[in-house]
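The methods section describes the discrete structure representation at length, but only in general terms. What matters is that the chain and its backbone geometry are given together, residue for residue. For illustration, here is how one protein appears when written out as sequence plus structure tokens:
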Amino acid sequence: MNKLLLTTALTLLAAPVFAKEYVIKEMSDSTGTGKKPYYYSPDKLTIQPGDTVTFLNDSDDMHDVMFVNVPKAVDEMIMSPMHNNKGDKYSYTFNVPGTYKFHCHPHEKLGMTGMLIVGQPSKIGETKVMDHHKMAKIHDQEMAKQAKADGQIQPAAGGIEATGKVNKVDAGPHTINLTHDPIKALGWPKMKMEFNVDPSVDLSSLKAGDDISFTLKAKGEDDYEVVGIHSHTH
């Protein structure tokens, strides 16, 4: 009997603590009254190894999650597909302790970032950068090749043509926030995004709700700038 009790006790001690499940919501502030137009809720979370986190799109905008800085022992890319619709979700079980940083790829520049600590924070030098931007660039190039081979786009000497609807124009930093239709040349689904606009493009006649066609050109390693706009509303 004593041997049986001892064996049972040792088994219980060796058993892992019950894993927990958490939800991080992908949010949009359509009122414009919050600190950020797009954000994760919560954007900081501490969990334990073996716990699972589900990223849930709780808005009518498109979001995703990409982990851009992870512990060195992580040997895979942690990234969701694009969440096109409200209710879309992506789950991942975190087994490697340390600090993880993530962002929404289309809304990174608008501050949609977050941090996850599994067990204990990583010390200096214990994390590595995961180059999602480089992978996204390769993906975009392959999609552009395929689309061109299929005769879906015009040669991009003058840029990549697209259409969409204006959400907001900001003359100060010369930017435009719009919901663009799917852009096959880049492999992008319909998304709400903010773009820098070339200084030569006149934004004075544009307003929210305008239907437009526009031209994108690559700028830098993983960025696109609007270099031409034609309104179909006026």
Notes: Residues 152-157 have pLDDT under 50 and may be disordered. The domain at 15-130 is CATH 2.60.40.420 (Immunoglobulin-like). The helical segments are 2-14, 132-149. The chain has two domains: 15-130, 137-231.
